[in-house]
Amino acid sequence: MGKRDNRVAYINPIAAARARGPVQNSGPTIQDYLSRPRPTWEELKEQLEKKKKGSRALADFEDKMNEKWKKELAKNREKLLGGSEKDKERDKKSTDKEKEEKKDKKEKKKKEKKKSSRVRRDDQHFDGSLPKYCHTYTHIHWLSSEFVSY
């Protein structure tokens, strides 16, 4: 039995493109892009000045927010300076409670840190030192010639 002919005809891509004809352009050409209308120097300066002035609505909004902030500051200032004794005591108690909670959290963190930094007893030797080389079942001291198996 003979082999099949697997050869494929070669098609020159340039010749095939020429045979298809010119390509239909979609969108503006480079010439259209280069000949587009551009602002004059004076128009450009006017646009930049408008941008520098900024938005009037934004300025109004900022003024409004500044007024609100001033009112809030005045209210807080009045509360702190002329507040009643009960308010001051209540604030003191709440700050004391917060401080105690922070202390408790710090102590808990310290305890957890100590626990995690401790070495497990399984990994320690009879004299309390750590093994020089550790494998799953055996500990070998390279400095000393002892071999300990657990």
UniProtKB/TrEMBL annotation:
It comes from the Eukaryota. Residues 105-118 have a biased composition (Basic residues). Residues 73-104 have a biased composition (Basic and acidic residues). Residues 19-38, 73-131 are annotated as: Disordered. InterPro entries: Fam133 (IPR026766). Belongs to the FAM133 family. This is Family with sequence similarity 133 member B. It comes from Mastacembelus armatus (zig-zag eel).
